[in-house]
TrEMBL record:
Keywords: Hydrolase. It holds the Pfam family Amidase_3. It comes from the Bacteria. This is N-acetylmuramoyl-L-alanine amidase. GO terms for biological process: peptidoglycan catabolic process. It comes from Mobilisporobacter senegalensis.
Amino acid sequence: MSKYLIAVDSGHGMQTAGKRTPAIPKVWFGKKKGSIIHEKEFNKPTAEFLIEALKRCGFDTINVSPGTVDISLKERYTKANNVNADIFVSKHYNSQDNKWGDENGIETIISQYASDKTKRLAKLVQKELVKAHKRRDRGVKTDIESSGFNIAVLRNTKMPAILTESGFMDNLEEAKTMLDPAFQKKDAEATCVAICKYFNVKYVKPL
């Protein structure tokens, strides 16, 4: 058994209101023109790729939101707390106002009550994601700064907890990559690199 246990969250569900792109203008990765991409279609595979990467590097993991249904926030943070996870990482994709616009970039969100350990983890992950995706660095923000609300999975977890936003799903260029397995894997590996640095564990590259 590993020294460290990582709780991974893929947030939302396929039918969660608002968590989707506007109608796409052309065929993307098998999606028809006029259809939409659910945020879960990025979050779920990326979280699963992250779990694979973490296991390869010797970490134990727990997926607190498996499947495609919306697991309640309380259930997610309770699962992580009950197993005494060492950190909590939630993978997401951002949106501005659910219509195509030009807002862009990557940010990592923490609770307004975040510990110094959480802040350190967030800075490491943010740096690696920006480096990997070469997108605008929106920085580390508190939940209040980002949305005006406390985020339950960040505030109620007993361990350092972060939520990453790897792009904007209502930005045409950034929405294109949501379904791209290469982008999803790159996101997962960058997050894993940062977690390895946080725990001073050697990062093992995929074969």
